[in-house]
User: Fold these one by one.
Assistant:
Number 1:
Amino acid sequence: MKYDRINKELFIHNRKEFVAEMDSHALAVFNSNDIYPISADSTMSFQQHRDIFHLSGVDQEESILVLSPFSLNKSHREVLFLKETNEHIAVWEGEKLTKEAAFDTSGIKTVYWLSDFDRVFKQMMCEVDLIYLNTNEHLRASTVVETREDRFIKKVKESYPSHDVRRSAPIMHHIRSMKHKIEVNLMQKACNITKLGVERVLGFVKPGVWEYEIEAELMHEFLRNRSQGFAYTPIVASGASACVLHYIQNNQQCKDGDVILLDVGAEYANYASDLTRSIPVNGKFSQRQKEVYNAVLSVKKAAEKLLVPGTMLDDYHKEVGRLMESQLLKLKLIDKTDIKSQDKNWPAYKKYFMHGTSHFIGLDTHDLGMYNEPIKAGMAFTCEPGIYIPEENLGIRIEDDLIVQKSGAPFNLMGEIPIEAEEIEDLMNA
Ligand code: GLY
Ligand code: MN
Ligand code: MN
């Protein structure tokens, strides 16, 4: 791992939160992700499943966490099963968690090797009536790949057909949406690394540069600061490509007079940062580009103030729509007639701003969260309005990551990253 060890108090706290929401006579199981194959003996680099990480800090393949808070055997109330290691295995396969290191990481005292799983798990299952299984209920998730968790669920249902089954997902969505102070610090660290990347890019971009060269500068800065790299596939989109919301080719040359949309965030310790800045290739926005830029910035400044306890995300998105509508009228991109004749399910402003304004952020970029409940202090959101005008070769989005406070405006984890048009121009011309 490139990141510094995380204080295990975080994972102890997170398990307490999960267990507090469990029914009695139950246990819950969480599996690692697989290491996904490419072909021959090549694999993709390992990415831990965020739920087992959230509850244990274990960042290693083939790990299983079992929480059985009602077990009569007190040493079985929290158990980790890990891939076996010893000095010989360490020489051949590299460093893996020892039982001691697993305790230092997670605060879990009972650690078995995986070879003991079937035997110990049977003892644990015979003490409970109910098992919590962890399915992926993220609304945007869509995958054809069978995960290690999916295989485990099949096996457990076959082996223990008379146990009742419950969903862990609602509990995980709830507890992961509320950020602990240690998590906020880790997210701040990810944002600080992103800031270094942006500053590097502002001094690097000039007409003729290629989008992938900008991506490389960011990666360089992220890696040298203990990040594994991008938290999500980066978007480095110049000119009209900025209007393609999921543009990830990053293979075009940046032309004098164009604006580049950079949707690029570093990860740190599996925590995501998610930033967008829009910068002029030649270091100076045209008058029209600045007008559009400032329209987006004014929507962003007003929108983020609405991320306060009690707000419903649905109402928030409607209000941001109204803010955007008034800016688009000023820019003469829409007029009163467009609004009068608009479809209420697809208002006129959507022609130029067709995506949502905010999503939860944390261990996943589009994090788990309670989208239909009022916002609470301690939740983390992005705020990312944009205006996309393909006929003008121009797409502008501005995005920061924010922590909702008990009162007042949210805390901006990206508050130190240049955002005013003039500030960006000054740094590009320094
Ligand atoms: N970078 C993905 C997003 O902004 O939601
Ligand atoms: Mn983004
Ligand atoms: Mn985002």
Number 2:
Amino acid sequence: MRRSDLPESFVLGTATAAYQIEGATHEDGRGESIWDAFTRVPGAIADGSTADVADDHYHRYAEDVALMGDLGFDAYRFSIAWPRIQPDGKGAPNRAGIDFYRRLAGGLRDRGITPWATLYHWDLPQALEDRGGWLERDTARRFADYAEQVSDALGDLVTDWITLNEPWCSAFLGYASGHHAPGRTVGSRAAHAAHHLLLGHGHALEALRATVPSARVGTTLNLYSVQPAGDSTADADAARRIDGLSNRLFLDPVLTGSYPADVLDDLGETEWFAEHATDDDLRLISAPIDFLGVNYYSRHTVASGFTPAKDAPASAYPGSEHVRFVKTGAPVTQMGWEIHPDGMVDVLRQANALAPSLPLYITENGAAYPDRVDADGRIDDGARTEYLEAHLEAARDAIDSGLPLGGYFIWSLIDNWEWAWGYSRRFGLVHVDYRTQRRTPKRSAAWMADFLRDAVPASRA
Ligand code: FCB
């Protein structure tokens, strides 16, 4: 597979998130986020680490921008830390925070790399969580103010905007299973958080459109290819439920303006949504977007008939606790996520069926492996290279089958702090030695650099 197998306009980039790379959590007026608080909860983070330093990107961003320029990427998806802009989640913007993202976006543009900014990649100001977080409707309004400030401050440098990253994770890992910050376990009420996140998306979209008329705005969902383990109607129902909770609960309101009734029923939340998810809300949530971002990593194979133990930990799928996630025996990455490139085409097709002309972008795809630095200081990550090649082939297949896929972003540019896994999972094309902060491109980075060069016309090569 060569780059020239993809359309010339196809965007190739890498992705990161503020909290996973920046560090400097107490500098230049940044406020506390829910993740800062969560890292202090005993047992919440697998290796007991914090992201106080992470990749020290806040100080080394210029080196990281140079790296991606050297590798030859077209675009870079990063996120803006809300607590750097509004330390308490409200009020006037913190100049130092704005200046950092202006330096970053400007540096990218100077290198010919298109900045793609995500407004919310999970780091809610703790002050807002203290007032109920995403379970409160007011948080969506606060998000609108923040979006307006950011677009005002960066709109001349950034054209491509993503409102939310993976609202499923924020709602159901944050408020149902409690595996992510803020670590709450409110059962099916986590769906209220999902609605408020989507409402926040709608408000932010409106603010961006008003402030930056030329902006291209989308949102990013994590979609899974879901299949039943067997032929029984019970397994088919399990698949309907998990597809519903992970995919349709988000795709339907954004792309069609309504919530899937069967999913609200599974959750036992029909009444709450009837009362609180108003027609005006849904009009905002389904206002036209310029593209949909899709994060794709793996598939779910599900069966019915599981009886959870009485003391089982809280589920990320409230109301569907009887569903069992089955291992098919297919190869997995270090996360335990099955490698299933065809599933990427499935989820793109599912989104496309609801909005046939809407451009789609893979805004994250990548793999964690236990990389080893060899005696020569090299990192020979053949498995990651194969994973990426297989998914780039799936991207080509998607395009060949007529899907409007416009680009593909690799998670991630550099190894980083992987949420509840801390530093114990590495997704980077570039290795980071956390003692010295030294960056070393892995074999996968060299492979991508070759892949990217293929499209450079001979006269410019
Ligand atoms: C996604 C997140 C991203 C990273 C990857 C591995 O769910 O958006 O921050 O953690 O998974």
Number 3:
Amino acid sequence: MTLNGTRAVTVGILALQGDFREHREMLERMGHRAVEVRKPSQLEALDALVIPGGESTTIARLILSNGFQGPLRAFCATGRPVWGTCAGAILLAKEVDRLDRPGIEVMEISVHRNAFGRQVESFEADVEVRGLEGGPFRAVFIRAPRIDAVRPPAEVVATLADGTIVAARQGNMLATSFHPELTGDSRLHAYFLGLAEAPAGIRH
Ligand code: GLN
């Protein structure tokens, strides 16, 4: 059993580059088993997968050189929850500006890298996340991407006050341009792990 009363599951965090440790620590605090994933063969044993923030061009390069692209696409198609935070969201998008090689390309979203400009490369903001109880989520943005377009079957999950899209979902897949693993708030991690339990009607 976990802190929030759900069954403990095994969650992988793609650990090629970026802030995988922070996700692992958050998931462990919640009472889940967290595994740093460095080889495609580790994917099979997982109930869910996080693709962390970091440098998307570097992670994309390592995905290709470690033979992860096909296995990650296959994992996304199994219906198990997959969550990309920041660079991870860039890698899940089918359309990205200025990414010099393919990522995983499974979500019907268009993403603009480093979209918030120099002065505000890092900032915090309260975001309203649809379906998340307990009030706004304090979100940390670090050289964050902006989600410019969300096409069906993907749907918008969170926006900033000015309407900028910062989270989207497509069935079992979630993309956030911010870093919930850097706050003490585990609600989005719990929300993500619940994506596999969604009614069949809203799975895609
Ligand atoms: N700017 C980074 C990129 O484009 C993402 C930043 C992050 O993951 N915090 O890869």
